[in-house]
Specification:
The chain has about 210 residues and is of the alpha/beta class. It contains 7 helices and 10 strands.
Length: about 210
């Protein structure tokens, strides 16, 4: 999983998720971590702790927000069992190399990820120049496109289309979408603008990623 959003439990039930090998975090905002407690059913099913990967700053937020998991105090009930790993560069997970992509989300440092032909970068307002080479030869690019109106911490549709023009992925999927963007109408608009390879992502979207 990338992040544990507040509806992580619903997502896992909808997708009939039977196992959880690891979780990789982009940043510590509430809408990306508050499903953390729902790791517990996987601990019980798998009888093992779940590895989690995050920047040092994000791990500190997790430790503060879910102090009962990390404080070492005796508990009378189950708590999430995790094995924290600090992301300090590329790392191997399940036989695949994950390359962190540093970006900015307002004044917060966040991480996207490059996994084989996939680049994933949600919640960002700027991509530093040094991160651009990590997007070379991308098959699928998943990126933030909140709405049309400017936002200090997110990309607009226009800004994300400029990113697509610069990075030239084979396909792009816009995520972290506000209700301001009606799905069918926005997809049709993207085609009219000359971006048939760009579409809004949706719940249940799936595609294969070349490692």
């Amino acid at each position: 999983m990338i992040d544990t959003s507040p509806d992580f439990r619903f997502q896992a039930l909808r997708e009939r998720l039977e196992s959880l090998d690891a979780i990789v975090y982009t940043h510590g905002h509430a809408d990306h971590i508050l499903g953390f407690d729902d790791i517990r059913p996987f601990n019980m099913r798998q009888k093992a702790a779940v590895p989690i990967y995050a920047s040092r700053e994000t791990l500190e937020i997790l430790r503060r927000t879910f102090s009962y998991v990390f404080d070492g105090k005796p508990v009378l009930s189950t708590i999430p069992e995790v094995i924290p790993h600090v992301i300090e560069g590329p790392f191997e997970l399940l036989g695949t190399i994950w390359k962190p992509i540093p970006a900015e989300h307002g004044d917060l440092s966040v991480l996207g990820f490059r996994i084989g032909g996939l680049a994933y970068l949600t919640d960002f307002s700027r991509i530093p120049a040094e991160s651009i080479p990590l997007f070379a030869n991308t098959d699928d690019l998943v990126l933030d496109a909140l709405r049309d109106e400017p936002h200090p911490m997110h990309q607009t549709v226009e800004q994300s289309l400029a990113v697509v023009t610069q990075l030239r992925p084979r396909r792009a999927w816009f995520t972290h979408i506000a209700h301001d963007l009606p799905h069918r109408e926005t997809n049709e608009r993207l085609v009219r603008l000359g971006f048939p390879q760009v579409q809004l992502a949706y719940d249940g979207l799936s595609f294969e990623v070349a490692a």
